[in-house]
Amino acid sequence: MFKASRGIEDIYELTYIRKDGSRFPAVVSVTALRDAQDAIIGYLLIGTDNTARKQVEAEQKQLAQRLRDHQFYTRSLFESNIDALVTTDPSGIITDVNKQMEAVGTLAGGIAHDFNNVLTVILGFGELLKLRKLLRKVVREDIRIRTTLAEKVPTIRADQGQVEQVLINLALNARDAMPGGGQLLVETQEEWIDEEYVKQYPYMKPGRYAVLSVSDTGIGMDEGTRDRIFEPFFTTKGPDKGTGLGLAVVYGVVKQHNGFIHIYSEPGKGTTFRIYFPAVDVPPDSKSVVARPVIRGGSETVLLAEDTESVRHLAEQTLIAHGYRVLSACDGEEAVDIFRRHGKEIAIVVLDMVMPNMGGKQAYDEMIATNPGLKAIFMSGYSPNAIHDSFVLHPGVTFLQKPFPPGILLKTVREVLDNA
Fold first, then answer.
1. CA-CA distance, 326 to 303, in Å (whole number)?
2. pLDDT digits (tens, 9 = 90+) for 16-71
3. Interior/surface letters 254-266, b for 16+ CB within 10 angstroms, e for the rest
4. Which of 230, 244, 406, 175 is closest to 311 using CA atoms?
5. What is the rounded distance in angstroms from the CA atom of residue 267 to the CA atom of residue 226?
6. Is it the case that residue 279 has pLDDT exceeding 60?
7. Which of 102, 106, 215, 364 lies deepest, with the highest CB count within 10 Å?
8. Which of 246, 230, 260, 262 is nearest to 167 (CA)?
9. 151, 141 in Cβ contact below 8 A?
10. How far apart are CA 226 and CA 223, in angstroms?
11. 10-49: what fold?
């Protein structure tokens, strides 16, 4: 099925099946592993869940189709009326031109609305991915995570996803080695390897390296286990608790990057993996990481009404992840119905302005008839002037213009809730 005999990485898009029977898309990289005689001795497969990228691609395709529809309609609009524009009197021409410009303005507003909804989803989910506590997701609460990161670590030529996979696999291994809890330490540093060091470890090469260390305070390993730890399918875990491939993948990725890996471990004294990546004299691709402000969440109940499912899902996930209870509605009518049943529990409503059946303004008017002090945030992909001047621009009304990142939504919700 796979072909990787050239000794370089090949990429495949496949569909995998979870234990519950559901299917999901995955990207699988396949690399041939060779011995000293350049003979193939096995294959390294690294799979990555591709669901998020597929969702973004689907959104982009929908947006592209909407744009094509808008462009076709606009072109037809002008072509069907051009004869009338030429044959009417001057005042008629001006009138028809005004109508055409009004129609074009309406179309432009619709295009902007669609763009802003899609951008909200793309930017929003990207922001959520950046906000994950990467290691915290794979270790237990009884394991303390510490990081000691050097300020000046040399640049390396590496695939970010594969390096993250190395870190995750080592964290999983450390977690299983600390059944009663403990400490996971992640360190980075610069190190120079000289000729004397190479005499002790002849498989290494002199030079400058970026070093990634992952240490745990777990049960440790004896010499027999250390000697076999990178063998595929070798595991000391019980049935159904390990595949024996995690550290084999780590070893394969490190070798792909022309790096080296050392292990230090004794029974009862924990384990340390030190990975050496060769440094390169080029500037890094990414910008320096900027410290993010702390975003406060809450435990209040939020009523969220948004007709675009992807935007609603993003806002819901964002609020729930920061402690809020969320009641979701797909339009104004459903929002009003939820408010009638749970009005006393709801601390704030977040309403899209333009929705089918009933818009945000009308829904809010019905809600404040029974709760005049109800706090609210309105959002839209349309510009404020295109919705309702007297309402949106009214003093005290909080309005979010799409697209906006999750942090802005969280900040705005907290500010409105805290504002007496």
1. 6
2. 787 788 888 887 777 777 777 878 888 777 777 777 767 766 766 665 565 555 45
3. bbbbebbbeeebe
4. 406
5. 11
6. yes
7. 364
8. 246
9. no
10. 5
11. Complement Module; domain 1 (2.10.70)
